[in-house]
């Protein structure tokens, strides 16, 4: 094996002394033995030329995760990647948010690269995201992904990979969550410190979405390396499955009201069906009064003429007109799922020549 270059040797000494390194890979671990070998090998294979460390917090694993990590210490050391491991052995894990915060607090990188223990980095991931982060020090940086097993969450994966740079900021209210998904995040420590720590309430709490929304409130940007830099694994044990749809829905509604509806005097809800009516009912009374109409393409809904909010305590009960989308006026909150109508909905929307982020926002 070739001897490391002098520069990298000095970087190693700096890392071991506990001083700053360029990038800390932040990895929470809970019973990840099944995937760790592949994940750690991908970290070892990074072509990043700066200094690196791997900071791991073991959140009460009961398998061989901790032992496997320790066995990788010398391998990582050959590439001048130092390894920091801490954890706890409580009866129950404390959650992903807590584990991430602990891994970050013990790290010393100027930049943070978030890595899930069940995913795999492509060799150029850190190098390319670090380059973008240097140009965008006040942004969360993401990337495109390859989903495995192939074909799992097909629509979601397509959405992740095809959003335009502008849509990374405009489609933040959709049901998918952050427009740059947490397993691809890369940011400066300055960004993280500005936003604050992850929520530590544990299982069932979408700590990534909460952090993402708070980062936008703090004025941080969001951008993406338009290359596939991560193999993103789907499996039933993933922490994301513990978060209820109702929890995500409420967070999205509240953020929509805070960021958009406070700026609008009135608007139209595109979808007079179940999802549109649910959104209407979820709004504050003040924002319900701003809904001037529903619009749709379903003639049966349009012929009824109105949606009556039967649960309202007002008398008479609110009756909101239901129009054909061509007769409705912007701005719109769109509650129609994308990529579900063979392109028909997308063609209808395009025909109106509206601008996303000004004339409409997607909610579903």
UniProtKB/TrEMBL annotation:
Recorded GO molecular functions are: hexosyltransferase activity
Report the protein name in the record.
Answer: Glycosyltransferase 2-like domain-containing protein
Q: Which domain of life is it from?
A: Eukaryota
Q: Which Pfam families match?
A: Glycos_transf_2
Domain Glycosyltransferase 2-like, first and last residues per copy: 24-194
């Amino acid at each position: 094996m070739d001897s490391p270059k002098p520069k990298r040797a000095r970087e190693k000494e700096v890392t071991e002394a506990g001083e700053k390194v360029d990038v800390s890979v932040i990895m929470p671990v809970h019973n990840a033995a099944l995937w760790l070998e592949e994940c750690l090998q991908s970290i070892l294979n990074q072509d990043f030329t700066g200094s690196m460390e791997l900071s791991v917090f073991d959140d009460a694993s009961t398998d061989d995760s901790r032992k496997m990590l320790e066995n990788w210490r010398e391998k990582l050391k050959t590439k001048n990647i130092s390894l920091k491991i801490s954890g706890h052995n409580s009866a129950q894990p404390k959650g992903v948010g807590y584990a991430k915060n602990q891994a970050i607090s013990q790290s010393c990188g100027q930049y943070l690269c978030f890595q899930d223990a069940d995913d795999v980095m492509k060799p150029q991931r850190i190098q390319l995201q670090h380059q973008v982060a240097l140009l965008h020090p006040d942004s969360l940086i993401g990337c495109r992904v390859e989903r495995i097993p192939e074909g799992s969450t097909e629509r979601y994966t397509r959405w992740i990979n095809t959003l335009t740079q502008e849509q990374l900021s405009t489609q933040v209210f959709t049901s998918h969550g952050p427009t740059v998904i947490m397993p691809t995040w890369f940011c400066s420590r300055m960004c993280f410190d500005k936003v604050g720590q992850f929520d530590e309430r544990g299982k069932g709490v979408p700590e990534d979405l909460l952090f993402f929304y708070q980062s936008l409130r703090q004025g941080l940007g969001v951008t993406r390396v338009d290359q596939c830099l991560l193999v993103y694994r789907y499996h039933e044990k993933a922490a994301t499955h513990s978060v209820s749809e109702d929890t995500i829905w409420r967070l999205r509604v509240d953020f929509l009201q805070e960021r958009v509806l406070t700026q609008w005097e009135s608007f139209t809800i595109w979808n007079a069906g179940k999802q549109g009516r649910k959104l209407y009912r979820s709004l504050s009374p003040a924002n319900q009064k701003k809904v001037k109409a529903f619009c749709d393409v379903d003639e049966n809904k349009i012929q009824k003429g109105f949606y009556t909010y039967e649960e309202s305590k007002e008398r008479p009960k609110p009756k909101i007109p239901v129009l054909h989308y061509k007769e409705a006026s912007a701005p719109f909150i769109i509650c129609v799922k994308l990529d579900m109508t063979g392109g028909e909905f997308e063609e209808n929307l395009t025909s109106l020549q509206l601008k996303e982020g000004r004339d409409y926002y997607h909610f579903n």
